[in-house]
Amino acid sequence: MTTRVLVVDDQVLIRAGVAALLRAAPQMEVVGEASDGDEAVQLAAEQRPDVILMDIRMPGTSGIVATEQIMAAGPDPRPRILVLTTFDLDEYVYAALRAGACGFLLKDTGPQRLLAAIAAVAEGDTLFSPSVTRRLIEAYAPQPDPATPPPETLDVLTSRELDVLRLVAGGLSNPEIAETLVISESTVKTHLNRTMAKLDIGSRAQAVVLAYETGLVTPGSR
């Protein structure tokens, strides 16, 4: 299947270079190019891309705000947003993760890595490694006050869904969660999908952020 990609970057040479690379690649189709966040939101609604390559830092509407608006707009299936950044341990990357991005790439990433990353996220994978995700969240996530009653956000989840969410936030993969809880990997996926639907979140990374921000897990826990 062809992967439909929207390229967003305020620097015309970078945008044009990435678009040219994708147009030359098999099973890739560039459905639009945007120079700022507002244009990205508009083109995402018009073209319904499978994947959006989103620059984070742009004048005017940033890539983070654009990601939030695109993910909130719906309808499903929402596009998979892959953000482009200069530094991996960056509060902007954390904000993009919180907004619903499913991965990030450094801007000096080579062409083959870029193509592989687009293909991976189009298939539903994420490109936040557990170690990087934990470092980002522990560095930038606001921690709840222990004296404050926990929010009711997670009350909609069953005890087993909470178990799965806690282990996801701890950096475990689906096979590791299945082994820990003595359930099948498909059951783990079912619990995680139901959790994301109940919480109205669009990515595994958002689930991890929510687990930290609600106090379900704390920095340094596993």
In short:
The protein is α/β, with parallel strands linked by helices. The protein is 50% helix and 13% strand.
Describe the model.
With 222 residues, the chain is of the alpha/beta class. It has helices at residues 12-24, 37-47, 63-73, 91-99, 111-122, 130-140, 159-169, 174-181, 185-199, 204-213; strands at residues 3-8, 28-34, 51-55, 80-85, 103-106. A 5-stranded parallel beta sheet has the order 2-1-3-4-5, with helices on both faces. The longest helix is centred in the C-terminal third of the chain and has 15 residues, at 185-199. It is globular, with a radius of gyration of 18 Å. This is Response regulator transcription factor. Residues 150-215 form the HTH luxR-type domain. InterPro entries: CheY-like_superfamily, NreC/VraR/RcsB-like_REC, Sig_transdc_resp-reg_C-effctor, Sig_transdc_resp-reg_receiver, Tscrpt_reg_LuxR_C, WalR-like.
Outline the fold blueprint:
Elements: E1 3-8, H1 12-24, E2 28-34, H2 37-47, E3 51-55, H3 63-73, E4 80-85, H4 91-99, E5 103-106, H5 111-122, H6 130-140, H7 159-169, H8 174-181, H9 185-199, H10 204-213
Parallel strand pairs: 1-2, 1-3, 3-4, 4-5
Helix pairs in contact: 2-3, 3-4, 7-9, 7-10, 8-9
Modified residues (4-aspartylphosphate): 55
Pfam families: GerE, Response_reg
Domain HTH luxR-type: 150-215
